[in-house]
Amino acid sequence: MIKHEQGGPAGLFLTLEGPDGAGKTTQARLLQERLQALGKEVLLVREPGGTAVGEIIRGLLLDPRYPEMTVACEVLLYSAARAQLVVEQIRPALARGAVVISDRYWDSTLVYQGLAGREDLAMIQSINFWATGGLAPHRTFLLDLEAEKGLLRVRGAKGDLRPAGGDRIEQRELDFHRRVRRGFLELASWEQKRICVIPADKAAPLVHDCIWEKVIPLLQ
Ligand SMILES: Nc1ncnc2c1ncn2[C@@H]1O[C@H](COP(=O)(O)OP(=O)(O)OP(=O)(O)O)[C@@H](O)[C@H]1O
Ligand SMILES: [Mg+2]
Q: How confident is the model at residue 6 (pLDDT cuts 50, 70, 90)?
């Protein structure tokens, strides 16, 4: 793996990763509240986005009018938004001594487009290393959940309670989500010091407790 610069000079850089519906956004908010209750300055950012340029790129990535967008194009757009976020938001906050929580970061690109999307992983790593100036999180919490359960949670939030994987398109979707889950676990096995695997198949406050237990020593 690439040698990264970790977290900047003073602050603490934490990221939340995991498949769709694993609870990243929920846990990012709980962690933010817990840290703020201790009087810490917290910057919570979501990817892609978080800057004026990044929000435009986000719109492009989510726009259904461009189904022809290639995986290479996606990699470059996600990485471009990340480059902007690091310079405009993350580095300045770390320099002030803040805790930065990012809801997804480069691991998502390595997994979705690289390991699950089967694009060139080493190239995606190089692009991200260059785009971020090698800024690695101090700690990454990988919320691990079965693909079916994650998809059910996402659907449940939209009021759709059908089981995942019903028709052929959904089966393909489910296969991809399984590859995403495996991809994240593979990444975690390569970088055991940075990436903590957190079982996410329990109530949100219990998942939060598992994360918090691992954050406390990082605050000292
Ligand atoms: N531990 C949990 N148990 C059950 N439901 C949960 C849990 N955590 C979050 N949820 C619910 O599951 C749905 C997805 O959660 P959340 O948006 O936090 O996931 P996410 O990982 O950010 O998803 P996405 O990848 O789509 O952004 C939400 O409706 C949320 O309320
Ligand atoms: Mg989310």
A: low
Mutate to test the pocket of ligand 1, among 15, 46, 153 (most ligand atoms within 8 A of CB): 153
Nearest CA among 81, 127, 84, 102 for reference residue 24: 102
Q: Are residues 110 and 78 in contact, defined by beta-carbon separation less than 8 angstroms?
A: no
**Residue type, position 161, single letter:** L
Please tell us whether the domain made up of 5-219 is placed in CATH 3.40.50.300.
yes
**What whole-number percentage of the chain has pLDDT above 70?**
94
Ligand 2 centroid from CA 192, angstroms: 24
Task: Spell out the domain ranges in the chain.
Answer: 5-219
Instruction: Check: pTM over 0.85? Answer yes or no.
Output: yes
CA of 27 relative to ligand 1 center, distance in Å: 8
Ligand 2 geometric centre to CA of 55 (Å): 15
